[in-house]
C-alpha cells in the first residue's frame, strides 16, 4: 500500500470513529488515491485535485468530489505542509437544498384528522400517531418506524433511539401528553404482539413506503402545499420542530447560540452546523 493509501485508511478510521459513515466519500477518495498512485504522484495539489474531481465519473458531482478531497487534504497537510488544500468553491455546486415546508398547528390538526379516515382503523391510528410523534419530537421518520415497544420508558418519560444516522444512539425526552398518546395507540393495537411500536395493516412493522404513500395522499386530500407550490414532505416535520424550538428560545430571551448544541444533541446531529441548516 502506498503512503497516500495508508494515510487514507487512517483518515477514514478517525472520521468514522467520530460518527461519520463516509461510504460515498470513502469510495471517492479511494478512487482519487488510486489515480495519484497510478500517476506516480505522492502529493495532493490543487490543480491535480480539481482536474480529477471535474473529469472523473466516480459518482457524485465535481463539487462533492472536491469537497471530499478537501477534508482529506487538510488532514494530510497537518502531517506534511507540502500537500495543498483545494479552496472552497473551486468547482460550482450543481444542486441546492430544498427549502422545507414549515407546517402550522392547523396543518397538523388537518393532517391528523385526515389520517383518521384511512382504512383499516388500526392503520389509521398508526399514521395519526406517527404524525403526532414526528411533530412533537422532531425525530427522523426512520427512527420512529424502527422503534420497539421496549424503547419507551414511561417512568423516565423517554424514548431510546438505537444506532440511528452515523451509528449514533440517543435519548429523546417526551412530554406527558406524548406518552399518553403513545399509550392510547398501544392500547388500540394491544392484540398485535410483534415487538414493534408501530404496526402496519398486515400486522407487521409499519414501513416507510406505505406511510409515505398515505402521507402524500393526505397532503393531496387536504390541499396543504408549500409557499412555492411544491409538495411538502413528512421530513419537513423535523425542520419544523427545530424552528419552533429556536423561536421559543428567542421569545424567552434565551442565549440561542449557547443552547444550540443541546438541540443538536436532541436531534441526533453530528455537529451544530447541521442544526443551523
What features would you describe in this structure?
The protein is mostly helical. The chain folds into two domains: 3-79; 105-276, Intergrase catalytic core (hpI Integrase, Chain A), CATH 1.10.443.10. Helices cover 56% and strands 4% of the residues. A three-stranded antiparallel β-sheet has the order 1-2-3. A hairpin with an 8-residue loop joins strand 2 and strand 3 (170-173). Helix 1 runs antiparallel to helix 2, helix 3 (46-55) runs antiparallel to helix 4 and helix 6 crosses helix 10. The longest helix is centred in the N-terminal third of the chain and has 18 residues, at 62-79.
Main features:
elongated, single chain, 277 residues, three-stranded antiparallel beta sheet, 3 strands, 12 helices, 56% helix, 2 domains, mainly alpha, hpI Integrase, Chain A
Entry summary:
The protein has 277 residues and is mostly helical. The chain is built from 12 helices and 3 strands, in the order αααααααβββααααα.
CATH class of the largest domain: Mainly Alpha
**CATH topology-level name of the largest domain:** hpI Integrase, Chain A
SSE order in H/E notation? HHHHHHHEEEHHHHH
Rounded to the nearest angstrom, the radius of gyration is 23 Å
Which oligomeric state applies?
A: single chain
Known CATH architecture of the largest domain: Orthogonal Bundle
Number of helices: 12
> What shape does the CA trace take?
elongated
Amino acid at each position: 500500500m502506498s503512503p497516500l493509501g495508508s494515510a487514507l485508511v487512517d483518515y477514514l478510521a478517525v472520521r468514522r470513529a467520530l460518527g461519520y459513515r463516509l461510504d460515498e466519500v470513502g469510495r471517492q477518495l479511494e478512487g482519487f488515491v488510486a489515480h495519484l498512485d497510478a500517476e506516480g504522484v505522492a502529493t495532493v495539489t490543487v490543480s491535480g485535485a480539481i482536474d480529477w474531481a471535474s473529469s472523473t465519473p466516480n459518482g457524485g458531482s465535481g463539487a462533492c468530489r472536491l469537497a471530499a478531497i478537501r477534508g482529506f487534504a487538510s488532514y494530510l497537510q497537518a502531517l506534511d505542509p507540502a500537500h495543498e488544500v483545494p479552496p472552497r468553491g473551486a468547482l460550482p455546486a450543481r444542486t441546492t437544498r430544498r427549502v422545507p415546508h414549515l407546517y402550522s398547528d392547523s396543518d397538523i390538526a388537518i393532517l391528523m384528522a385526515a389520517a383518521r379516515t384511512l382504512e383499516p382503523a388500526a392503520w389509521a391510528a398508526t399514521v395519526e400517531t406517527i404524525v403526532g410523534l414526528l411533530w412533537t419530537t422532531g425525530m427522523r421518520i426512520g427512527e420512529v418506524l424502527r422503534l420497539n415497544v421496549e424503547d419507551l420508558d414511561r417512568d423516565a418519560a423517554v424514548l431510546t433511539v438505537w444506532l440511528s444516522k452515523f451509528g449514533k444512539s440517543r435519548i429523546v425526552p417526551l412530554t406527558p401528553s406524548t406518552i399518553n398518546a403513545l399509550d392510547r395507540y398501544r392500547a388500540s393495537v394491544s392484540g398485535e404482539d410483534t415487538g414493534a411500536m408501530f404496526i402496519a395493516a398486515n400486522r407487521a412493522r409499519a414501513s416507510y413506503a406505505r406511510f409515505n404513500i398515505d402521507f402524500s395522499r393526505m397532503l393531496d386530500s387536504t390541499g396543504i402545499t408549500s409557499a412555492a407550490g411544491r409538495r411538502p414532505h413528512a421530513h419537513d416535520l423535523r425542520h419544523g420542530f427545530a424552528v419552533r424550538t429556536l423561536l421559543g428560545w428567542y421569545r424567552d430571551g434565551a442565549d440561542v447560540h449557547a443552547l444550540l448544541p443541546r438541540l443538536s444533541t436532541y436531534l441526533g446531529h453530528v455537529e451544530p452546523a447541521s442544526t443551523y441548516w
